[in-house]
Amino acid sequence: DKFAIDRAIPQVEIGDLVVIHDAGAHGHSMGFNYNAKLRSAELLLREDGEVIEIRRAETMDDHFATLDLEGLAEFEA
Questions:
Q1: pLDDT of residue 26
Q2: What domains does the chain contain, in order, with CATH numbers?
Q3: CB distance 19 to 10 below 8 Å
């Protein structure tokens, strides 16, 4: 998927914030972990210019939190 093609953007440095407006299905509410792609953190830009994290990034522990492998060795292919 692409958000834009051949768009000029300013030089990006480590620590800079990149805003993608109207992410649609790529936002948290519509996103899913296809190919174990973890969801990114979500940030909120306040009217006063302050940026706050409103949802932390997912971790691999989050990804596997609901997986129950107990007894898996009992199954044979």
A1: 64
A2: 1-67 (2.40.37.10)
A3: no
